[in-house]
Amino acid sequence: MTPSSPAGLGEPVLVSPLVRALPRRTRLAIAGARLAGATSRRCGLGGGGVIGGRVALKLDPRALERLGRGRTVVLVTGTNGKTTTALMLSRILTSLGPVAANADGANMPDGVLAALVAAPEAPLAVLEVDENYVSEVATQLRPACLVLLNLSRDQLDRVGEVRATERELRAVVSRLPGTTVVANCDDPLVASAALACADPVWVGAGQGWHGDALACARCGQAMTHEGVDWRCTCGLARPYPRWTLEGDRLGLPGSGSVPLGLGLPGRANAANAAMAVAAAVRLGVPEETAIERVRSIDAVAGRYRRARVAGHSVRLLLAKNPAGWRETLRLLEPYTPVVIAVNSREADGRDMSWLWDVPFELLAGRPVVAAGERATDLAVRLTYAEVQHTVARDPLAAVGSLAGESVELVANYTAFRGLKQRFGDG
Amino acid sequence: MGDSAVRIGLVLPDVLGTYSDSGNATVLCRRLVWREIPAAVTEIHYGEPVPSSLDLYLLGGGEDEAQSLAADHLRSHPGIQRAAARGAVVFGVCAGLQLLSTGFLTSGGVRHEGLGLLDAETSPGKRRAVGEVLVQAASGLGVEPLTGFENHLGLTALGEGSRPLGRVLAGTGNGDGTDGAVTGRVLATYLHGPVLARNPALADLLLGWVLGAPPAALPLDEVSTLRAERLRAVKGGHRA
Ligand SMILES: [Zn+2]
C-alpha cells in the first residue's frame, strides 16, 4: 500500500494553518514523526506511519489531543469489521470535506496519531481504534461519534477477557457525554457499553456469534435469547433499533427499506455498511449519498482483491478470529480450491485452539491446502473435520500446487500481512 | 444410533467453551467412528436438565462469571455426579478442572462449591499462566508426554482423594510442579489446545475406560507431526 503521507526525507515539512497553531513541542513531535516515518520507508521497513506516531507520542504525549482539536472525529471500534467500516465511513464523509484516516489498519494510538499527522488540514477524521485502546484515544480526541460494532474474543492468550473490554468501553462512553454513540443492538456486550450514552443510535446489524455473551455483562446471570431479542432479569435488554439490517436490505429510520447492493461480499460487510450509513447520516450526510458511496467499495486494505499468482487468479481474504472465520468461509466460491494460511505470532495470538471453533467441515469436497507457520495444527483440524487436504508451508507454493484458474486464499493476520508484502502491496 | 453407541456429553458448551473445548468432543467422536464404534455427541446447554445416562462427560474452560453460572447449574442438576457414581468417565479442562473439584475462589474472592468429584481447591494466583505446557504423565496411566496450551490464573492444591495427572516439565499447571487431578475415572487438566487433539493417547485412555478395553491403534501422520513440532517448540524454550 502506498503511504498516504509521501513526505520524504529532505522535503520541507508542510506547515498548515492548523499545525502553525500548535505548540512548539507538538510541531517538533510532528516533524520527528515525519522524519522517522520517512527513514523507515527508505530503509524498506514498511509504510512508516506507526514508527512515526510512536516517535511523536514520545516527544509530546498530548500530541493526539492537540492534533485532534478543531476536527470532527469519528472513532470506529469492535472486534471485527473496524477497517472496512472505517473505510466506508471515510468514503462517505469525503462528501463533506477532506478526511484523515488510518486506512492501513494501524489502530493503536501511534497509528491513529500518524493518520492525523499525515492529514493536518483535514477537518474530518475517521479512525479505527483497537478496542483495548479506545479509552486512551477517545479521552484525548473527544470524538463527535463513536461507532461500536461488536465484541467477541479475539486472541485468547493476549487480551482474554472481552467482558473487561466491555466495562472499559462503558466507562469511556459515560465520561464523554458530548459523543454520539452508534451501536449494534444485536450484540449484548456492545449494547451494554452503549447504554452508558444518553441517546445512542441503535442499529440492528445482526450477530453471527453468541459464544461470548451468555452471561449478562451487567450482573453475570444467564441471558435469554428469543429470535433477535435478548434480555436479562436485571433489566438489560435489546434496545429497539432505528436502523435494521434484513438480509441485503437496510430498514431506514421512520419507514421503508432500501437494497444495499454492496460491492463487498457477505453478511458481515452488510452489517458494516449499516453501521457506517447510520453514523454518516447522524453526522449530516443524506441517506442516498451515504448508501451510494458505500456501494462503490469493492476492496478493503488488500482484502477481497484478486492477484495473479503462479498462473492463478487468487482472491485474498483475511480472517482473524472465530467470528471472522465463520463469515469468511461462507463467502468462498463453491468448489473453488482453497489455501488456508495460519500463523501464531504475537499479533495473531500464540494459542491455536481457535481452529476448533471454526467450522472447517464446510470445506469438504474441494481441494484444500494447509499453509502458514502453523500448517500442521491446521492439518490436524482438517483431518478431524474429514476434509481431504495437502500441506505446503509456504502459501504461494500452496497456490502453485493447485490446478485450475481461480484460488481462494484465506489467511490470518500476520500471514495476510506477509502475503500483501509479497504481492507488492505491503 | 443403537444401544451400543458411546454417548458423549458436551457439558454447557454455551458457557464453558472458551478454549474451543468442543474440539475434544470432535476428537473422541471421530476416533470412535473411524474404529467403527458408533458414537454420538449430546450438547447439554445452560438451563437444560443434565442427563445422568451418558458414558462420558466433557467440561471445558470459561471466564469467572461463566464458571460461576456453570457451578450453580451443575450442582442443581446433578446428572454428572450421579453418572460418575456409577462409573461414567468425566473429563475437565481448565475451568472444567476447577468445577469438578471441591471448590474454587474466583478473582472477586467468592468461593464456589464445585461438584466434589476431585479432591482439589483452587485460588487465584498473582499472574496468568499463559503458554505451551509439557507434562510427564503419571506412570500407570500409560500415556506419552502431554502437550498443550494453558491460560489461567488458578493455583490448584490437591487433597488426599486425588492424585496429579502428571509432573510439569515446562509451564505452570497446578502451580506446584504438578498438573491436573485424577480420581477413579474422573480426570482433569489445565492443558487445552484442544488437549485430546494433541494427545491421542490421552483420548484413547478415556475411551478405553468407557469401552472396558484399550481401543485398537489409530496412527495419524498429521498428529504425530504436530506432537513432534510442539515438543520441539517447548524444548526450544518458546513457551508462548
Ligand atoms: Zn443482567
UniProtKB/TrEMBL annotation, chain B:
Residues annotated for substrate binding in this entry: R128
Keywords associated with the record: Cell shape, Cell wall biogenesis/degradation, Glutamine amidotransferase, Hydrolase, Ligase, Peptidoglycan synthesis, Transferase
EC assignment: 6.3.5.13, 3.5.1.2
Signal peptide: none
Gene Ontology BP terms: cell wall organization; cobalamin biosynthetic process; peptidoglycan biosynthetic process; regulation of cell shape
The CobB/CobQ-like glutamine amidotransferase domain, residue ranges: 8-199
GO molecular-function terms, A-Z: carbon-nitrogen ligase activity on lipid II; glutaminase activity; transferase activity
Signal is among the record's keywords: no
Pathway: Cell wall biogenesis; peptidoglycan biosynthesis
Catalytic activity: beta-D-GlcNAc-(1->4)-Mur2Ac(oyl-L-Ala-gamma-D-Glu-L-Lys-D-Ala-D-Ala)-di-trans,octa-cis-undecaprenyl diphosphate + L-glutamine + ATP + H2O = beta-D-GlcNAc-(1->4)-Mur2Ac(oyl-L-Ala-D-isoglutaminyl-L-Lys-D-Ala-D-Ala)-di-trans,octa-cis-undecaprenyl diphosphate + L-glutamate + ADP + phosphate + H(+); L-glutamine + H2O = L-glutamate + NH4(+)
Pfam families: GATase_3
Active site positions: C94 (nucleophile), H192
Role played: The lipid II isoglutaminyl synthase complex catalyzes the formation of alpha-D-isoglutamine in the cell wall lipid II stem peptide. The GatD subunit catalyzes the hydrolysis of glutamine to glutamate and ammonia. The resulting ammonia molecule is channeled to the active site of MurT.
Quaternary structure annotation from Swiss-Prot or TrEMBL: Forms a heterodimer with MurT.
Family: Belongs to the CobB/CobQ family. GatD subfamily.
PANTHER family, sorted: DETHIOBIOTIN SYNTHETASE (PTHR21343), LIPID II ISOGLUTAMINYL SYNTHASE (GLUTAMINE-HYDROLYZING) SUBUNIT GATD (PTHR21343:SF9)
Name of the protein in its database record: Lipid II isoglutaminyl synthase (glutamine-hydrolyzing) subunit GatD
